[in-house]
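Reply to dn_fold:

You asked what the input looked like. This is it:
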Amino acid sequence: MIRRAAFTLLAWLFIIGAAAAALTFPGLTGRVVDEASLLSAADRASLTASLADLEARTQDQLVVVTLKSLQGTTIEDYGYQLGRHWGIGQKEKSSGVLLIVAPTERAVRIEVGYGLEGTLTDAATRLIIENAILPAFKTGDFAGGIRNGTNQIIRLLDGEAGSGATSRLPAPANPGTSMPIWVVIVAAAGGAGLLIYCAVSGGSACRALFQILFLLALSGRGGSSRDKSSPFSGGGGSFGGGGSSGKW
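and this is what came back:
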């Protein structure tokens, strides 16, 4: 019975780990990553110019991304991990923002880096989504909604930069090392289950499981996907889940 319970626990942990490792992110090919093909070439060019101007004025990085799929996770979970994966925003300030649109799940999110959470508050981003983005999305005007939302985010960032305000929050000392609590729980449970299984079985089966878990760790989602040929890249900023989401 102990052996069967241990094997069942490890099977579930393997499934969870495989699902986590399978989550992929698009490459950071520019300031606008239109994976879902919602924008015309002219829309992308116009947005890219506005986002480049914003960074030149404020040193803040804002990236617009449309996704084919959230791959079974929530836009909140996908959003902050995408921001970390790309490293949007300056490393010292974590001054990055993502405007994420997932049309398959009919979800939109403004993901805010640690350093801008005092400027782009949850309340402010919620209003942008509700008043500037969703009305256009509900009529099928994705380009208009993205353009409206981007302009409103830029206005807030420009206003903060020009006011001399000190509302920006300092980035954590080691923002890249934090992780969701469920990862810690799964890792602890997996370690305990593996020890139990090894205690009752031992031998080659135990060594094989260690090899599987090691391969899963190597195939995880912590690496960078920046396009080396692109002149744009993130600055190493991090995210902690600040921002707001909406659905239409």
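Residues 142-163 form the longest helix (22 residues).
Hope that clears it up.
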